[in-house]
Amino acid sequence: MSDTTRELPPRIGLVAWSAGDLGLLRRSNAPEMTEHLGGPESEEKVLSRHARYTAMSARPATEGRMFKVVLADTGEAVGSVGYWPHMSQGAEAYETGYGILPEFRGRGLAVAALRAVVAEARAAGGPRTLHAYPSVDHAASNATCRGAGFVCAGEVAFEYPPGTPIRSHDWWTELGDGVGPDGLGPDGVSPAAC
Asked: For residue 104, what is the DSSP state?
């Protein structure tokens, strides 16, 4: 790439999760995709998760959404991203989760997907903050949050899957007007170095 040429961000699209996306969910249940999430789930849990994701598309957007991430040029599925209601420090918020299939990693697609889901959650008009909780050991996922403009509030105890405690970073972004002029985040939290 020459000095006068700059790389453009990847172009992706978000498509509401549907009944036809079970194959993508199964591919996302592979060991290399779930290493920091407690490992692969049973087929029963995958089917239950797929039913929840599909049902989200029929509910009001304020109750959350799950999306298939596709390449804008080809429509090829490369991963998933979503948001759903969550309580953060006693306040209503949204939580997000994302995953890009291994063969598509390293192209900035996760950052693009996370930025796109921020816009979706903002447009939904529900809670005014969106949080992500990657494991402190998951360098790539923490870098994705940083690259998408999230602020780190520090380490927190988290459970994923439910009942499995992990140490996570609490990354968040404002869905309203942004961080206040004092540079503090939700509930006056000062950004941490993560």
From this structure: G
